[in-house]
DNA sequence: TATTGTTATACTCTATAACTATA
DNA sequence: TATAGTTATAGAGTATAACAATA
């Protein structure tokens, strides 16, 4: 009945147990985020967009005339970072940078027709990407996920 | 009844509308992840740990004898990145790198007593950090969040 | 030949700080 | 003085590729 004793200390390809980490929302969040982000990156690459550039394009298209500072605040990044993103979008003629009559320090950002068209195509692909990714979830589960993520975001803002 | 016409084009501090982005799990995930990660970073900084180093310490403590390659796989990073993390933990005598009898190419990683003690303190603080952050959630909501994040992680793995 | 750990290198993303032109 | 945008620089964090030792 006794099984044969293994001869070598055997570098058995053991399963690593991460149960101690799975208790934490942070660990699960990081893993989910990194996989989702990598997948999304691949989708947007076909349009020459990175994730933040995509977000910027949607924000500009949906808020015609916003300034770079407003965009920085909405994206939660510094103004200096927005410059590169806006440079990129403008050089590809997806947005325009117009002077604001009342304040010559700031620019009014607007999506061009080409920009809105690219946005439409990208949005369709991102929707498809999420449908694929979240195929195992019901509509309610997906809504619940988004709701709970919003709570985390706001909780972190308050908790600091 | 007609309100007085504003005289200047007014650079009104408008609210930027991100509704077009809020439909996406990816956008909500990124924002939640970034805020949570920044908050967690501040907590772990008191222990001289970064998030991945913390994860590595817990994995090593919970899987005595695992190799660097196994750790790399568990952390979803390259072996070259593990070297830096292991160097850091070993130089602080939180883990040991022992030769494996059967295979002289690899090392067996083990947490020292000091490593396990630091882990215990850090885990307690991270638990407190998450309790603070997720204070608005019920126990069920928190469990549901973790479950749904796991689905995203696995969905992305399959979808590729 | 393949694998483990290592090193050197490069790239992405973002922040900080100093600058300019306006206000 | 303060603000919008810009520039230069630096720092995380990670990947890639080549290598030595060992299997």
Query: Rg of chain A, please?
Result: 23 Å
Task: Tell me the quaternary state.
Answer: homodimer
How big a fraction of the residues of chain A is strand?
Answer: 5-15%
Specify the overall morphology of chain A.
elongated
Instruction: Compute the separation of the termini of chain A in Å.
Output: 60 Å
Tally of helical runs of chain A: 7
Q: Could you give the order of the helices and strands of chain A? A: HHHHHEEHH
Name the pair of protein chains with the most residues at their interface, and give those residue counts.
A-B, 76 and 75 residues
Mean pLDDT of chain A: 91
Low-confidence blocks of residues of chain A: 1-11
Number of strands of chain A: 2
Helix content of chain A: 55-70%
What's the story with the biggest beta sheet of chain A? 2 strands, antiparallel
What structural category characterises the helix and strand content of chain A? Answer: mainly alpha
Strand order of the largest sheet of chain A: 1-2
What's the arrangement of secondary structure elements?
Two copies of one chain form a homodimer.
Chain A: H1 19-22, H2 25-45, H3 51-62, H4 68-75, H5 79-91, E1 95-99, E2 107-111, H6 113-133, H7 139-159
Antiparallel strand pairs in A: 1-2
Helix pairs in contact in A: 2-6, 3-5, 3-6, 4-5
Chain B binds a DNA duplex (23 and 23 nucleotides) through residues 50, 52, 67-69, 77-84, 86, 103-107.
Describe this structure in words.
- 2 copies of one chain form a homodimer.
- Chain A is mainly alpha-helical and 160 residues long.
- Chain A is 62% helix and 6% strand.
- Chain A has 7 helices and 2 strands; from the N terminus they run H-H-H-H-H-E-E-H-H.
- A two-stranded antiparallel ribbon of chain A has the order 1-2.
- In chain A, helix 2 crosses helix 6.
- The longest helix of chain A is centred in the first third of the chain and has 21 residues.
- Chain A is elongated, with a radius of gyration of 23 Å.
- The N terminus of chain A is likely disordered.
- The interface between A and B is large, with 76 and 75 residues.
- The structure holds a DNA duplex (23 and 23 nucleotides).
